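User: quick one - fold this with NAP bound?
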Amino acid sequence: VLIFGGSGQLGGELLSCFAQARWQVVPLRRQEADLNDLAKVVEKISVYRPNVVINAAAYGQVDLAERDPDQALLTNASAIRNLAQACSASGAKLFHYSTDYVFDGLADRPYRESDPVHPINTYGVSKLAGEYFIRAYAPHALILRVGGIFGPRGILTNRGNFVETMLRAARDPQPVRVIVDFTASPTYAPALAQRTFEIVERDLSGTYHCGGGEAVTWYDFAQRIFEVAGVQAQLVPASESDYQISARRPKYSALSNAKLENAGISAMPSLIDALKDYMRRRSALRSSTHEALA
Ligand SMILES: NC(=O)c1ccc[n+]([C@@H]2O[C@H](COP(=O)([O-])OP(=O)(O)OC[C@H]3O[C@@H](n4cnc5c(N)ncnc54)[C@H](OP(=O)(O)O)[C@@H]3O)[C@@H](O)[C@H]2O)c1
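Assistant: Sure. Structure tokens for the protein plus NAP:
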């Protein structure tokens, strides 16, 4: 298994999951293989000759993408076209992550794979274009749409995640203002990596959703984070209109996992169980990182 985006918060979980199952796995960091460098991507695939290529790399800065659409389209669409072609040419199976932001958020129940897509920001358009390129050039690929990834390795990555943002905000004496008018199903990275492993073992193809176990507002999510972390914080509900955000976001983007579960893949853990596991792994990761630095 060759993993692009191997140093991201999901990439790290994928590495440990496949390695624990004794698969041969090679994680590639951006410095080793930039997705936008076609020659490098082709070289890595021809050197390692993987059975499976997992792409966990993406341009994921939703607000920045509004100001820099070319870069978002380059990494999330054009580079994915190249990757799909390279995988097809070498016979490697492609496993790719897409997003709940391919939807417009007007639904009132979790989105299914058969629901019409209609992105409302540049990031969503770029990820959807990546999906189309994969369907065109690697028809046996697996596309897994996920939303709001949070994993303990977020403490080590450049972008971090919502849990880390909340824990940082709670250290500030100011109240923590969190948006109440967006609902999603945040996806726990170690559980997502495990489902990825199950899907690869079963050799599924096509498009599937893998949201977290529950649909929650970001405000509800913050409440649960503080509850599980045992942190006292003054949470204040805020609205989208309180902020100047460049990108519009879908108001509702929870994903239905029914198709995935019907295919025999394990159900995702509840949000509370995921957060308990997150805090345990986060402490272990922090201790081992401090030890390594000491
Ligand atoms: N995070 C979310 O909430 C979320 C939601 C929906 C879908 N997804 C999708 O899930 C996947 C994994 O997300 P994640 O949270 O693990 O993201 P992440 O932590 O930001 O990791 C992404 C990785 O991709 C690397 N990368 C970025 N541009 C690259 C390029 N041009 N070439 C090679 N590597 C590049 C990044 O390297 P640097 O650190 O050097 O930039 C980083 O290691 C992505 O496909 C994303 O679109 C994520």
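One thing worth noting: The longest helix spans residues 271-293.
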